[in-house]
Amino acid sequence: MSEKDKEGHLSWWQMSLIGIGCIIGTGYFLGASISIQKAGWSVLIAYLLAGMGTWIVFNCLAKMTAHHPEKGSFRTYAKQAYGNWAGFSNGWVYWSSEMLIMGSQLTALGIFAQFWFPSVPLWVFSAVFSGIGLFVILLGVEKVEKMENLFGVMKAAAIIMFILIAGAALVGFIDITEEINGGEKRAQWFANGPKGLWIALLYAFYAFGGIEVMGLMARELKEPKEAPKSGQIMLVALTTLYVLSIFLVLKLTPLASINGDESPFLTALAQYNIPFVAHLFTAVLIIAGFSTMVASLYAVTTMLVTLAEEGDAPKRFAKEGKWRVPIPAFLLVTFFVVISIIIALLLPEKLFEYITTAAGLMLLYTWVFILFSYKKLMGEGRKDRLLFMGSLLLIFFAITGTFWDDVSRKGFFVSLLFLLVIAGATWIRSKKGKRQNSLTPPGNGDE
């Protein structure tokens, strides 16, 4: 992105709205159906635990931001804590995770749009939405901020709208079908035993993905010291909305009616005798998916530019032209978006679940680095150590939960493949750096 030095212009509450815009998306509106299938009623525990774990990770990131705002955010902090290898690997792990998330979001957007146009292939919708998203990125960071502010309000309002309608149905103000009122098909507390909760934890964490984008945007705050407040209030409110809305889905919708190819909220709304509501909520789902996709596009472009500026990617990717965005970085991101569309064309079956699992895991690897960076740079107190261990344990359970599910397990191996490739690149770069340092005459090297 264009990086002219300027004073921050965002207040903490505006950053909170941007956070809502970055976080509420397909991971929640579509991914919740998978977690409900896996866990039944215990999915509520999964979202509470994921909210707590996310709150701790964001608090660590926000405190480092408040202490010293950096353009590279968590990647730069990893570099300061553990050296160049950590900055290089952390940056590319996050970049890869966001590109996987892009494929997940494009697939979900196609699924949502097929509610109106069921005969249109997924890849067509992926191409259209990605093209519009890339155009928004070209307009610059200010447009992204304004759009995320607006969409953040709309998405929060949609969840509240669902809660009000579902609550009215629950107390009898709105008529619902006999199938929903039938108790025999309701979800059990542990639909697949305790391991169902274990599996669902990853999808619950994925619904909170986006806090890293707030870190990347934190330099836009008028008062960087207010970064912790902006996220803490937002995450408490978001966790409450998540748990309450999913509780109402479980209360009103038979578990057998919920499937991974449709939002559980749309499934629930379709049962009500209000014709326009399902169409209105579908529009909101598309807006939600589109805004998180734009946030991901912003994140991968910004991260690529930062990597290039600090020598961890070819320098050409930091080169600015007439546009607000460095064109080489933009073109590379565009290339991988096209790859995502091709994947959507070739592998539509179970694609969302495979990519969602891999993307969620890669994101959690980044969060682990945030925790360790904070522990090394700032987290020296007893309370910090307890919170660090608690969040690390929750993330560990989310990652290992993939071992118990066939679909999630495939996503785990995809994420592992990415890690191995990045680890190999990190090792090669480290060896190259050591060789260059050994050839540099004394007094002429970098400090």
UniProtKB/TrEMBL annotation:
InterPro entries: AA-permease/SLC12A_dom (IPR004841). Pfam families: AA_permease. Its main location: membrane. PROSITE patterns: PROKAR_LIPOPROTEIN. This is Amino acid permease. Residues 15-402 form the Amino acid permease/ SLC12A domain. Keywords: Amino-acid transport, Membrane, Transmembrane, Transmembrane helix, Transport. It is found in: Cell membrane. Coiled coil: none annotated. It comes from Pontibacillus chungwhensis. It is a multi-pass membrane protein. The chain crosses the membrane at residues 12-34, 40-62, 123-141, 153-176, 196-221, 233-256, 276-308, 329-348, 354-374, 386-404, 410-428.
